[in-house]
User: Fold this.
Amino acid sequence: MKKLVISIVVTGMYVWIMTSCVSRKSEPLKQKAFVPASERIANGERVYMANCQKCHPGGEGGLGPSLNANPAPQLIKRFQMRHGLGVMPAFSTTEISRNDLHDISKYLRAWKGY
Assistant:
């Protein structure tokens, strides 16, 4: 009887763990990779991966909040990237140029639509 109870508990825990892990909500399972539509979007992806991906993986929440779910205009997001807010670091023009900042915005819009 004790072995039966233990096996039921272990099986239940296994099923719970396997069903509670879900893929990221912003990336549908399309089985195709994100392909940038322009060089500006590709540059935005490179700059994003180098500076933002650590805290906002794939635009989702991680160490920082989700960017995909944030309804703020890109102007506000660029202002926050440039000046920082709370624990968000400020990125100077020597770290991320003005054009790169706009390219990140283009990448975020393209990724959100992906």
Remarks:
- Residues 29-113 form a domain with the Cytochrome Bc1 Complex; Chain D, domain 2 fold (CATH 1.10.760.10).
